[in-house]
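Methods: example folding runs. The two proteins below were folded one after another, and each record is reproduced exactly as written to the output file, sequence line first and structure-token line second.
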Amino acid sequence: MDVLEHLHSGKEIATLKWLWNHTGVILGYSNVYRDFIVAHNHPSTGVTFVTLRQFAANQHYWLTGRQTQFNFETLIEKYNRQHGKAYNAFFDNCQHFSSSLIDGRETSSAVQGTFILAGCLLLLSALSNKKKYR
């Protein structure tokens, strides 16, 4: 089954960038670019749109299974309000942006995972140091 058959406006798409999933939301197909258009937030550009080829950058991509709850007009309005917004790895990354277009909440599993890992490492360090001083 070809993933291209299932690409529709409002679906979240992802590709692997370094250790994390880079996510975006499909806005639709462009006859001008002859490709799908993906809205995303990128460190070098902030919130913008690119073609699917540019988004994937020769990497494998997949649908995350998440679909926007908003109609097309609202989706575009939400994109336009954020267009040009700067990227911030902890507060405004690609996952925050795509989540805001999908369900209206800005969340990032990458940031949540990083904080959980950091908390576990701090706890282990504290427990390790406590044993040394007994």
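Second run, written to the same file directly after the first:
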Amino acid sequence: MNVQKLKMKSLAQWLVIGIVGTLAVVTLVYASSALRGLVIENCNDCQFVVQGEDIAGVLGGGSRFINGLSADSTSPLAGEVRGTTLTITGDADITGSLSNTEKTSVVFTTTTDTETTGVLTQANLATNDYFEISIGGASMTYGFPASSTWATLIPNAGDYKQWLFHNATTTDGINLAFGSGVGTFVQFATTSPATAKVLASSTASILCIRAVDTDVNCQGTIFGY
């Protein structure tokens, strides 16, 4: 009789242990599933710990995000780091190629013999990187805008931007030239800057940089056949 009671008591204990263990496993599985969809926002100076271990170690020692990392509302591609602004406070070591999908081009067309001058605006320069200029009549001179109008394009000393200008005209003698604006100075790699011009079917590369004294200095190189 005592032996039978002892067996029943032991069986009851094992049943309790089994039920408790099952509940613990179910709880862990549910918690793990819930964490998979966890999104943490607006967290400053946060430190995350998983089972007593810093999350940096859990992620592979160095916080590796093989599925990508997004700082905006768009899901990243595998290995992609995306966001509206990337700030690097130290040296940058880039082993791959750099590409800019935002680059755009524009076609400027002059159609009359009497139109010989034009003005590039900050909006033109901010929106486009490549200018295809078709001259309908005589040679054309485009003036760069005054340095005061570049406030949002290259606002700080050392800021710079580069453009390509192609003289799409195929007729010899119809040339493309560039003029300076107030506080904006355009120079070309030539011994005769005043006569620097882009011949028909040729291209000029012009880089403009904001100087410490707030002027904008532009250096150009002309490529021809």
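Comment on the second run: DSSP finds three helices and 13 strands in the chain.
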